[in-house]
Design a protein that fits this description.
The complex is a heterodimer of chains A (about 300) and B (about 350). Chain A has about 300 residues and is mainly alpha-helical. Chain A has one domain (about 80-305): MetI-like (MetI-like fold), CATH 1.10.3720. Chain A contains 15 helices and no strands. The radius of gyration of chain A is 27 Å and the shape is globular. Chain B has about 350 residues and is α+β, with helices and mostly antiparallel strands. Helix content of chain B is about 25%, strand content about 35%. Chain B has helices spanning about 40-50, 90-100, 105-120, 135-150, 165-185, 195-200, 220-225, 230-235; strands spanning about 1-15, 15-25, 30-35, 55-60, 65, 75-80, 155-160, 185-190, 205-210, 210-215, 240-245, 245-250, 255-260, 265-280, 285-290, 300-305, 315-325, 330, 335. In chain B, the strands form four sheets. A six-stranded mixed β-sheet of chain B has the order 6-7-8-3-9-10, sandwiched between helices. Chain B has a five-stranded antiparallel β-sheet with strand order 13-17-14-15-16, with no helix packed on it. In chain B, strand 7 (about 155-160), helix 5 and strand 8 (about 185-190) form a beta-alpha-beta unit. In chain B, helix 2 crosses helix 3, helix 2 packs parallel to helix 4 and helix 3 crosses helix 4. Chain B starts with a strand and ends in a 6-residue tail after the last strand. The chains are: A mainly alpha (about 300), B alpha+beta (about 350). The interface of A and B includes residues 208, 210, 212 and 213 of A.
């Protein structure tokens, strides 16, 4: 007994064991991420919220509190209401096309054919190419004189050579153009998501459905779709939030024009808040959808958890 | 009449001949087991019967009709998969109703049939659950119920017990056999487990490397194996094979006994040198060599646990023997021949 008592020394905290302790290493590893979010996301976000209820402009940087006056003014503006409509139209239509193309693309790319690997790699390109570069290429395709789209349509006789379409110059066509480009940028994401979903459906389940007499449509919409629904919902939330807050395609392709016909909240907020220097109204425009998006995301995620299988 | 008949079925995957000219028929109400090692082509053959794969050549007849060009759903078959293939997002009731819905069965009839099937398999208390809320055994019964409601000409079962733990497998085995005897539907059952095959099959078809080696009742397969493969694939430990002129000589470990335990009938005596022994509770397995005879593997003898336990020790040489009626003879190609000479 004495030998044991002598052998037991008081516990000493030696610094070299610090690296083995999760309560020390955990915070250390997570600190950069937290710092990043606080400095680059949280701080600007709360600043924007404050701007939206102040009278701040770059010409008169006062933090004078004005309450909901800015919101009231923004809501009364015709341009804003028009832009809000555009934003919803732009987001919903480009989501629908993006997901549809994604589904079709995934169903094609899941087939076994020679060159599938290359095809799968190429599909991701629209997503991987820098947006400015991609939009530049599209800008040429929509050009009033050199449009390859118009040239093709004329060549097959679907367009009057005397009266070519002004893609970026007419209001409806400009909206179609920005939606096309945005859907084109979104669809690789859709393909990847759907591919992941389709490959996650056990082969036995599909075989069982085949034996049980389900044809193409029933197999797709009664078996596969419900099984991969959670994954699609996530894609939809991502895509929607991303599109509602995005301005790159609109800004680069049409800059909101002609006559605000393609203006979305992001581009309008940028014009008002940064280019015109009216920071407080710009902040209101940018933050306008935030409460709705937050709510929508929470509801969707709740539904998702309930449906989890 | 044969419920299912396969004629000269071949299936080629690229270079590999997965199924090599199998002809086989399943009688009405029969429980036929396809037995073979992993990768022998038994599952491929079953999938060809189901129509999930298309044979490279040969004909499939179900209920007397050629179904080569008939899709799975119209073949009058129902299949139970290894992982059951239940629809994870549907309730048990909807899973079972699914094959009926695809056939546009009236709603009342669907309800009636689901009730009948769930009661028959005693899962009627589970109908509102989803597959992930069920145990392995319950899932298996749901899969069976889903197969049952279609009232198929034939059940195709692909290793349905392999996902269950050992204890459950034993009870599920007898339940499944009992179930088949109740409904009397012709069944093709794929397994690599010889105990399942022997215990359940009315007949067993042994398959190896895509070829049908032997078809017969469990007794025929065990007592008169058609070749060395069948002889050594069935039985634990497998049949002993020792060399002889013009082929090999086989005898089962349980027939290879100390000389003094055998009397009466004519014997083939063999001096056995015991290398080691395993005590397994109810029996003992002896491993060793027979003097003057060559064998590819150690020769085994299976004895009741306490028989001659005093006189047998590792390292000893002991006089062992086999009844001549229990010897099997195989030629150089490994095929069974009639009585040969034991010199």
């Amino acid at each position: 007994m004495t030998a044991i008592a002598e052998g037991a020394r008081p516990a000493v905290r030696r610094p070299r064991f610090m690296l083995d302790r999760t309560e020390f290493m955990g915070p250390l590893f997570i600190a950069p991420a937290i710092l990043y979010v606080v400095v680059l996301v949280a701080l600007p976000f709360f600043l924007a919220i404050y701007y939206s209820v102040s009278a701040y402009t770059i010409f008169n940087p006062s933090y004078h509190f004005v309450g909901l006056k800015n919101l009231d003014e923004v809501l009364k503006s015709d341009i804003f209401r028009h832009t809000l409509g555009n934003t919803f139209f732009f987001t919903i239509v480009s989501q629908i096309f993006g997901l549809l193309l994604g589904k079709v693309g995934a169903m094609l790319l899941i087939q076994d054919f020679p060159g599938r690997g290359i095809a799968r790699a190429l599909v991701v390109l629209p997503w991987a190419v820098p947006v400015s570069l991609a939009v530049l290429a599209w800008k040429w395709m929509f050009d009033s004189l050199y449009s390859v789209i118009n040239w093709t349509l004329m060549a097959v006789g679907l367009m009057d050579p005397m009266n070519p379409a002004q893609w970026l110059g007419t209001t409806d066509l400009a909206m179609a153009a920005v939606i096309t480009v945005h859907a084109w940028r979104l669809f690789p994401f859709g393909v990847v998501i759907f591919l992941a979903g389709l490959t996650s459906v056990p082969k036995e389940v599909l075989d069982a459905a085949t034996v049980d007499g389900a044809g193409f449509w029933r197999r797709n919409y009664v078996i596969i779709m419900p099984i991969i629904l959670p994954i699609i919902t996530i894609a939809l939330i991502f895509g929607t939030v991303f599109t509602f807050t995005d301005l790159s395609v609109v800004y680069l392709l049409t800059n909101g024009g002609p006559v605000n016909s393609t203006q979305v909240l992001g581009s309008l907020g940028f014009q008002v808040g940064v280019l015109s220097g009216d920071v407080s109204h710009g902040a209101v425009i940018c933050l306008f959808l935030f409460p709705f998006l937050l709510l929508a995301t929470i509801v969707l995620l709740k539904v998702l958890r309930k449906r989890e299988i | 009449m044969a419920a299912v008949a396969a004629r000269h079925i071949k299936k080629q995957f690229g270079e590999v001949l997965a199924v090599n000219d199998i002809s086989l028929s399943v009688n009405d109400g029969e429980f036929l087991v396809l037995l073979g090692p992993s990768g022998c082509g038994k599952t491929t053959f079953l999938r060809i019967l189901a129509g999930l794969e298309h044979q490279s050549s040969g004909d499939i007849l179900i209920g007397g009709e050629n179904v080569n060009e008939v899709p799975p759903r119209a073949r009058g078959i129902a299949m139970v998969f290894q992982g059951y293939g239940l629809y994870p997002h549907l309730t048990v009731a909807s899973n079972i109703a699914f094959p009926l819905k695809t056939q546009n069965t009236p709603r009342d009839e669907i309800k009636r049939k689901v009730k009948w099937a769930t009661e028959l398999l005693s899962i009627d208390h589970l109908v509102d659950r989803r597959p992930r809320q069920l145990s392995g055994g319950e899932r298996q019964r749901v899969a069976l119920a889903r197969a049952l409601v279609r009232e198929p000409t034939v059940f195709l079962l692909d290793e349905p017990l392999s996902n269950l733990d050992a204890k459950l497998r034993t009870s599920a085995r007898s339940e499944l056999k009992q179930f088949q005897q109740t409904v009397r539907t012709s069944t093709v059952y794929v397994t690599h487990d010889q105990v399942e095959a022997m215990g359940m099959g009315d007949r067993i078809a042994v398959i190896d490397h895509g070829q049908l080696r032997q078809v017969g009742t469990p007794t025929e397969i065990y007592d008169q194996p058609a070749d060395e493969f069948v002889a050594t694939f069935l039985g634990t430990p497998p049949m002993n094979l020792v060399e002889r002129d013009g082929g090999s000589l086989g005898f089962r470990p349980e027939h290879f006994l100390p000389r003094e335990m055998l009397n009466g009938s004519p014997l083939a005596e063999m001096p056995f040198r015991i290398d080691r022994m395993e005590y397994l509770g109810s029996e003992r397995i002896l491993y060793g060599e027979i003097e003057g005879r060559r064998a590819k593997r150690l020769v085994t003898a299976k004895l009741p646990a306490h028989a001659a336990s005093d006189s047998l020790r590792a390292g000893d040489k002991h006089a062992f023997a086999v009844r001549r009626s229990e010897l099997h003879f195989f030629d150089k190609q490994g095929r069974r021949t009639r009585e040969g000479v034991v010199q």
